[in-house]
Amino acid sequence: MADRVILEAGKTFSEFSLLTNFTSKDCTLQKISLGSNLGGMKLRLPFMSAAMTSVTGYEMALSLGKEGGIGVLPARLSIKEQVEIIEKIKGYEMGFVEDPIAVRETATIDEVVRLVEKHGHSKVPIADRNNVFLGLFSFDKYLETNATPGESVTTIMIEPKDLPCSKNPNISLDEAKSELTEKNYLVVLDELGRLVKIAFRKDVENIAVGAAISTHKGWKNRAKSCIDAGADMIVVDTSDAFNEFTMKVIKEFKEMNDSIPICVGNIITYDGAKYLMENGADLVKIGMSSGSICTTQREKATGRAPMTALLNAARARTDFQKDTGKYVPLVIDGGVSAAGDMIIALTVADVVMMGGYFNHFFEAEGEKLDENMQVTNHEPDIKYVATWGEGSARARNLDRYGHVARKTFFAEGEEGTVENWGRLKPKLKQDIRKIKAALSNTGCMNLEEFRNKAVIELMSTYTQQIVGNTHNMQVKE
Ligand code: IMP
After folding, report:
1. Does the Cβ of 303 fall within 6 Å of ligand 1?
2. How many other C-beta atoms are found inside a 10 Å radius of the C-beta of residue 469?
3. Residue ID of nearest Cα to ligand 1 atom 22
4. What torsion do the CA atoms of 93, 231, 122, 54 make, to the nearest 10 degrees?
């Protein structure tokens, strides 16, 4: 009996605090990598956007993919829709940034930092009044210098002699690409040293995109069509994956394909995670009842606090690796809504999937609303983005909510709105810096090291209130 009643309360991300560890002088934000290897597929960022119709469509998948994460196209889309988006993303070629936004040598560091925060581009060229290139401002470098905001930007710019530059203004994209295999960017100048364009490596790399499938009839055709179109990952999207249907799908998927990974979820227990690993899942996705729009706990008292679910899945990962030598990456899905949550989650998980967080951005699929809650497409008017879960009235996804619910269906998610945060890139970059800063505090150069070394500590509710907030003061409006 004792085993069947757990009296220790489940935990979520914000109940933990990360401890610091020794940081060497080499452990700088510039050098820290957030790359991850997911069953053979490499990402530059440990982020997946949720397979929700109000979150991931072409715009979100493209923007997140360009930054180095992966968008997962919902299984609720038709096969044709999924395929068209995948093909469009795979056909997308960013190429050169022509006419890059440059600043004059008279600009202060402060002015350039504001530009960076607005656009999210962390590198800004500096040119004189004749557009002659003088150097490059790098936000990461700025963070590591002692320069003060009021100083001239030229005091910390990287000089042209230290930068990869091409003096051939007619350089083709293919020629640039071959140079970008070793460099992160290439500044293209004309014979008078004037700035013409810049090519960034991340703009010419493969943009990853994932596609969700269900375990219901027709999944095979959907998976095959998406793989043929170029999908980099298939995600079996069910609210409860600890069942025979899922096992059968993994087995048949493996017979059909061995080139791209299959991510399977969701589960919330040690046994559930072990079951999926033993049956061949390349990645295991964790979470139930913790999603921002989720009503599962309220409706059927089922689910688990996300950090507890993740820690149990991680035990299964360790045991499975001991037995087989195979490391199965974990995706935490649901309840991660801010950089602090991402940091705690990444002490255990390999990747973070988010719905509500990405929903805030202009690129989300949800309708854009003005302050009168009227649909608008006019960017400056957008105040809110509509959000709905896959189990809500608008998105009712019988496939995701499965076999039992199929006949007696009840909603497991609600609809609502979230504040508009503007474009994805600037905020995402800011949150990436917070994550890198946390890694730096723990002396970790990459996420694998972070998962192995990071120590987190549980706080009491009282401590959390004091430590997690400002206190004994009035915050200035
Ligand atoms: P969020 O990042 O906290 O918003 O959680 C996103 C996750 O919520 C998704 O990836 C799904 O696993 C889950 N989800 C999506 N739609 C629903 C729903 O209608 N009910 C319950 N959970 C949902």
Report:
1. no
2. 8
3. 294
4. 110
For residue 240 the two structure tokens come to 């409860």
The two structure tokens encoding residue 388: 């709905």
Ligand 1: which atom is nearest the Cα of residue 391? Answer: 19
Pocket test for ligand 1, best of 13, 49, 52 (most atoms within 8 A of CB): 52
Q: DSSP assignment, residue 103?
A: B
How confident is the prediction along the chain (477 residues), in pLDDT tens digits per residue? 447 999 999 999 999 999 999 999 999 888 999 999 998 899 999 999 999 999 999 999 999 999 999 999 999 999 999 999 999 999 987 778 887 888 999 999 999 988 888 887 888 999 999 999 999 998 878 877 888 888 899 998 998 888 888 899 888 888 888 888 778 889 999 999 999 999 888 888 889 999 999 999 899 999 999 999 999 999 999 999 999 999 999 999 999 998 999 999 999 999 999 999 999 999 999 999 999 998 888 989 999 999 999 999 999 999 999 999 999 999 999 999 999 999 999 999 999 999 999 999 999 999 999 999 999 989 999 999 999 988 887 888 878 886 555 555 677 888 999 999 999 999 999 999 999 999 999 999 999 999 999 999 999 999 988 888 888 888 777
Q: Which atom of ligand 1 is nearest to the CA of 292?
A: 3
Bridge partners (DSSP) listed for residue 48: 70, 353
DSSP β-bridge partners for residue 127: 133
Q: How far is the C-alpha of 15 from the C-alpha of 142, rounded, in Å?
A: 33
295 Cα: distance to centroid of ligand 1 (angstroms): 9
Torsion of CA 314, 338, 66, 446, to 10 degrees: -50
Dig out the tokens for 109 from the structure. Answer: 């560091």
Retrieve residue 308's tokens.
Answer: 């507890």
Distance 453 CA to ligand 1 centre (A): 30
Task: Using most ligand atoms within 8 A of CB, pick from 294, 341, 353, 359 the residue to mutate for ligand 1.
Answer: 294
Q: Hey, which bits of 404-476 come out as E strands?
A: 415-419, 456-458
Any idea which residue has 């610091």 for tokens? 20
Q: State whether the beta carbon of 412 lies less than 6 angstroms from ligand 1.
A: yes
Query: Closest by alpha carbon to 136, among 167, 169, 171, 101?
Result: 101
- Regarding the beta carbon of 52 and ligand 1, being less than 6 Å apart is answered yes
**Distance between Cα 392 and ligand 1 center (Å):** 10
**333, 342, 351, 397: residue to mutate for ligand 1 pocket, most atoms within 8 A of CB:** 333
Distant-in-sequence, close-in-space partners of 9: CB < 8 Å, separation ≥ 6: 305
Q: Ligand 1 pocket test: pick from 293, 297, 400, 414 the residue with the most ligand atoms within 8 Å of its Cβ.
A: 293
Contacts with 327 (C-beta within 8 Å, 6 or more apart), sequence order: 317, 321
* C-alpha 174: how far from chain center: 29
